[in-house]
Design a protein that fits this description.
The complex is a heterodimer of chains A (497) and B (508).
Chain A (H helix, E strand, L loop, with lengths): L8 H4 L5 H19 L5 H20 L6 E2 L4 E2 L2 H19 L13 H18 L4 H20 L4 H32 L4 H10 L6 H18 L7 H8 L2 H28 L3 H22 L5 H22 L2 H27 L23 H4 L1 H15 L5 H15 L3 H27 L16 H15 L1 H18 L3
Antiparallel strand pairs in A: 1-2
Chain B lengths: L3 H15 L8 H22 L8 E9 L4 E7 L1 H19 L7 H20 L3 H10 L1 H11 L4 H34 L6 H4 L6 H18 L8 H8 L2 H26 L1 H6 L1 H20 L4 H20 L4 H32 L10 H4 L1 H15 L5 H14 L3 H7 L1 H18 L16 H19 L2 H21 L3 H10 L7
Antiparallel strand pairs in B: 1-2
Helix pairs in contact in B: 1-2, 1-4, 2-3, 2-4, 3-4, 3-11, 3-15, 3-21, 3-22, 4-5, 4-6, 5-7, 6-7, 7-9, 7-10, 9-11, 10-14, 11-14, 11-15, 13-14, 13-20, 14-15, 14-18, 14-20, 15-17, 15-18, 15-21, 15-22, 17-20, 17-21, 18-19, 18-21, 22-23
The chains are: A mainly alpha (497), B mainly alpha (508).
């Protein structure tokens, strides 16, 4: 007979799941409103989503209790709070982009916004746990929603992208489950902290089974982080989904996956496992370099940004590989300063989405480089802003990503990994070339009179506000970094990294 | 006067943003006014500058990122003082002489932002702030070359950007490494140059760091073999771009050597003395020969720039007060002379839309005043005594004579070679019969061009006869610099070398 299970309610530490509950509740509220009303404008749902995300953010930031909850399944430590805050803020900024001038199929469904909130909750769960099972559940909740959101854009390309992403994602999920199973077999637990304790008693340097587990986990996390060679989905998915969704994919899922990766790889990095170190070293170098070279020959800006974001993922993988508290801090700084640039860049693309099909102007894709020819004459302000964002991505000071790169390279050098630092530098200069390509097209080429592209078709006020906010933060990084660094530093060090 | 340096940096930035509101037809007046105010401000700064002291003055400090010791820290000494004055002066003159009409507003705003970056580089005393301005200066220049350049402007501008960007990223690694060493030695991070001056570095580290900084500076200077971007950039850039590039941007590289490489890595500087001198001499001789072979007037001046930058490097790596002081004077004189020469080429290009020597001939008959001013500038470029070019060149060579008389003799060829290619250029362009009928209709200089060129001519003659106002403050600061090098030198070999080369005028 099973003994009745009893636990004190307070021991559950319900506050640990408060933020996610807000998001889930919000999703349910949106679904209920849809039940009782007909043909409500999208603005209602957008505003509701933002309100729930704000409450969510409040719950994240005001969290102060014990870090463990729900029988040690939940773990809301410093990096979790930090990660959740970044995810929620970025989600809020991205959902603003749906307030565009043109009408889109997907925004007419309230389910879109419900799924968006479910997805946010899923990513938050990923960051707020060290149990492989809960991470898996969070990952799948978020991914399932994300696949659907991509497909809702309702074009052939979008469906193609969603199916590609889904198929690859299913494989990655399988990898994750299999990797977790191997660690359960080795240690009898699915909690990373317990796994770490057990592994420290084993001879991990040459434990073949453990390495197989690590490889499967790298496959699963590598898919989410789009590390080479698990990156093949990225360009197609970016191109197929709408620009605002592509920006989201480039940023938010990776934040969640990065936190899981920090928690997971820290076990092996701190144990000085040469095999894991070697694998990560190799993947980091190839992830930084290979997509950079491919990006050089892209003709579509979105595909170029896809490859560039793969390369950025390689950069932050270096931080995990180095594994000092300085480098983990640098990782968060990198991702925070990256956020403004990436939001700004994709919002600018979204702003310049034209109503006509690309073939109307004789282009093959939506965001071909030639589309922006001579933008400085047609729309000077947006050309300058886009140029700032591109220079920002290239790491030209004083724009924000330069500081991220600098602190990351600093942490790498401080740990004695000079070779990695030099490879990062080389890649930065290669990357500068393809970012410059857009600037060259916008500023140095005359407008083609036969192809008078209508720019800024989507220019609603909200879109402009988001771009203004992103650019302001990107340009003034030097002034607010000091405060953010203190916050990040406290969060990272309090969680023991 | 306390915040004069911040005003100098941020006034053009503010003016550039406000310039967006100015109407197109008034933008040139606006640009000239702003740069003139900036120039007056630098003169005020000069007036307030205490020439009896060689240390940092007008220093300002505000922490930015406390955790890593990054701060807004600026200040000037005799070395940077005249480079800043030269910067604002040349920027103003180049705007006065501006003949471009396409997208004038964008061009002037870009130049104002460029001025921010250039002044920023010369006043920064924090490595990261220096780096920020250093990199930021690439952006407006990229735009100026790429948007107003010649037929191959895109190739030229992107090459310019990528080349310098890659080089300075290597330098960034060097900076981070020094800061890291500083943190290990003292327990706190700092990017402050004045604090770095007190950080001991062992010989091997110095060698590596010297090489890292070398990439950043040498590409900018440019030194052979990293000079290949320069002829393209000059060849394609509009006149105003060439003037600013040659007069100011190149000096950022040599300034970097003086501000960073010498005092931070004195042992490495001694060790690399001869290799650097050999690179400089290759630049002097080789590019002088290449200049001789050019058909394009602008390319001749571009290559002569590389050649003169070689003399500056030679003077710097003499490591004595005369050499370094002379190289700083040469930086200023080369800024004025090459700026003027590029402007003169622009004058003829505006009229004829070609820069090829074989399209001209006998211009002295058609444009006498133009020929006179060109002649004066040419003599200054060659280094004729009593012109501004002579003083710096002589002092640089004198400085290096204490190191190696033989190498100095080879480097002295610069004066002969310079005379050869410049005089051949002058002969083919200005003397002889007028070979092309249409050249007879060319008009002599107009008022705008006089306004831009006459001040330069006066400076060339005045400072050539009486260089003391510049040499005195420079001398004080350079003496301090050599002292710092001597104190920081770790090896006895370096100490002996520095002592040995600094004996000019003591031997009787």
């Amino acid at each position: 007979m099973i003994t009745p299970f009893q636990a004190d309610f307070a021991s559950l530490n319900i506050a640990t799941i408060a933020p996610m509950s807000v998001a889930i509740l919000g999703a349910l509220v949106i679904l209920c409103i849809d039940l009782f009303t007909k043909h409500v404008d999208k603005h209602l749902y957008v505003v509701l989503t933002i309100l729930f995300l704000m409450v969510d953010l409040g719950a994240v930031l005001s969290f102060g209790g014990p870090v463990r909850g729900f029988f040690d399944v939940m773990l809301v430590d410093g990096i979790s709070v930090l990660g959740q805050a970044i995810i929620v803020v970025a989600s809020g900024l991205f959902i603003f982009l749906s307030l565009s001038k043109q009408r889109f199929h997907e925004y007419s469904y309230p389910e879109y916004f419900a799924l968006f909130l479910f997805m946010t909750a899923g990513f938050q769960f990923m960051t707020a746990s060290d149990s492989l099972i809960l991470i898996f559940v969070g990952l799948e909740t978020a991914s399932m929603s994300l696949y659907t959101l991509i497909a809702m854009h309702n074009s052939n390309k979008a469906t193609e992208a969603a199916i590609k992403y889904f198929t690859m994602g299913a494989l990655a999920a399988g990898f994750f489950a299999f990797g977790s199973m191997i660690f359960y077999y080795l240690t009898g637990s699915v909690e990373l902290s317990v796994i770490a304790q057990h592994l420290s008693t084993l001879d991990t340097q040459s434990n073949f089974i453990m390495l197989v587990g690590v490889v499967f986990m790298i496959g699963a996390l590598g898919f989410k982080l789009s590390l080479v060679p698990f990156h093949f989905w990225a360009p197609d998915v970016y191109q197929g989904s709408s620009a605002s969704m592509a920006g989201y994919i480039a940023f938010v899922p990776k934040m969640a996956a990065l936190i899981v990766a920090i928690r997971f790889f820290e076990i092996f990095i701190s144990a000085h496992n040469v095999w894991v170190h070697g694998i990560l070293y190799f993947i980091a170098i190839i992830t930084m370099t290979l997509p950079n070279l491919i990006a050089l020959v892209q003709t579509d800006i979105k595909r170029m940004l896809a490859y560039s974001s793969i390369s950025h993922a390689g950069f932050v993988l270096v931080a995990i590989l180095v594994g000092t508290s300085q480098s983990i801090e640098a990782l968060f700084i990198y991702w925070i300063v990256f956020s403004f640039i990436i939001i700004g860049a994709f919002a600018m693309l979204w702003l310049h989405r034209t109503k006509e099909k690309p073939s109307f102007y004789g282009f093959t894709t939506d965001y071909q480089f030639e589309k922006f020819t001579g933008l400085i004459h047609a729309s000077p302000l947006s050309a300058v802003l886009l140029a700032i964002l591109m220079l920002g991505l290239a790491g030209v000071p004083p724009f924000s990503l330069f500081w991220g790169k600098m602190f990351l390279i600093n942490a790498t050098l401080a740990h004695g990994e000079t070779l990695l630092a030099i490879i990062m530098i080389l890649n930065s200069s290669i990357a500068a070339f393809y970012y410059l390509k857009l600037i060259v097209v916008m500023f140095f080429k005359e407008r083609d009179n036969k192809r008078m592209v209508e720019y800024a078709d989507m220019g609603s006020l909200m879109l402009q506000v988001i771009i203004a906010v992103a650019i302001t933060f990107a340009v003034t990084a030097i002034f607010w970094l000091d405060g953010v660094m203190d916050f990040v530093s406290i969060a990272v060090r309090s969680s023991g990294y | 006067m306390e915040h004069i340096l911040s005003i100098l940096i941020f006034f053009p930035a503010f003016a550039a943003i406000m310039g967006l509101l100015v109407r197109k037809d008034a933008i040139k007046v606006y640009g000239i006014t702003v740069t003139a105010i900036e120039f007056v401000l630098t003169c005020v700064m000069w007036y307030g500058f205490d020439t009896s002291s060689g240390g940092m003055q007008f220093a300002e400090f505000a922490p930015l990122i406390t955790k890593y010791g990054i701060s807004y820290s600026v200040g000037i000494d005799g070395i940077s003082l005249f480079l800043i004055i030269m910067t604002t002066f040349v920027t103003m003159i180049s705007l006065i002489g501006l003949s471009e009409t396409r997208d004038l507003k964008n061009l002037i705003i870009a130049i104002l932002f460029l001025e921010v970056a250039m002044v920023g580089v010369f006043v920064a005393l924090d490595a990261i702030i220096f780096y920020v301005f250093w990199e930021f200066s690439l952006v407006p220049m990229l735009y100026i070359i790429g948007a107003w350049g010649g037929p191959k402007k895109i190739y030229a501008s992107v090459k310019f950007f990528l080349y310098t960007f890659a080089g300075s990223l290597v330098m960034l690694i060097g900076m981070l490494y020094i800061a890291h060493t500083f943190a290990q030695t003292t327990g706190r991070w700092s990017f402050n140059l004045m604090e770095w001056y007190m950080l001991p570095l062992d010989f091997n580290t110095q060698l590596w760091l010297f090489v890292a900084f070398f990439f950043g500076f040498a590409i900018k200077v440019p030194m052979v073999p990293f000079h290949t971007w320069l002829p393209y950039a000059h060849g394609q850039a509009p006149t105003v771009g060439s003037v600013i590039l040659a007069a100011i941007l190149l000096k950022m590289g040599t300034y970097g050597f003086i501000r960073f490489s010498l005092p931070l890595f004195p042992d490495a500087a001694v060790a690399f003395m001869i290799p650097m001198a050999i690179l400089a001499i290759i630049a002097i001789v080789y590019t002088a020969m290449v200049a001789y072979a050019q058909e394009d007037i602008k390319q001749v001046i571009a290559y002569s720039s590389v050649s003169h930058m070689g003399v500056i490097i030679l003077g710097i790596f003499a490591l004595n007060v005369e050499g370094i002081g002379g190289s700083i004077f040469l930086m200023i004189s080369h800024g004025i002379v090459s700026g003027a020469l590029f402007m003169l080429v622009g004058v003829i290009y505006d009229r004829k839309h070609t820069k090829m020597m074989n399209q001209f001939g006998g211009l002295a008959k058609v444009m006498p005043m133009y020929a006179v001013i060109f002649g004066i500038m040419l003599m200054a470029s060659v280094g004729l005594p009593l012109t501004i070019g002579f003083v710096g060149e002589f002092l640089s060579l004198l400085g290096f004579f204490a190191v190696s008389p033989i190498l100095t003799a080879v480097a002295g060829l610069t004066i002969i070679f310079g005379a050869v290619y410049m005089l051949v250029l002058y002969k083919r362009t200005f003397f002889g019969p007028v070979t092309h009928e249409e050249n007879l209709k060319l008009k002599d200089l107009n008022k705008r061009e006089y306004a831009a060129l006459i001040p330069l001519v006066l400076l060339v003659v005045y400072l050539g006869v009486h260089p003391k106002p510049i040499l005195n403050p420079v001398d004080k600061s350079v003496k301090l610099l050599v002292q710092i090098m001597d104190i920081r030198a770790e090896t006895t070999k370096a100490k002996e070398m520095i002592a040995k080369v600094n004996t000019i005028g003591e031997k009787k």
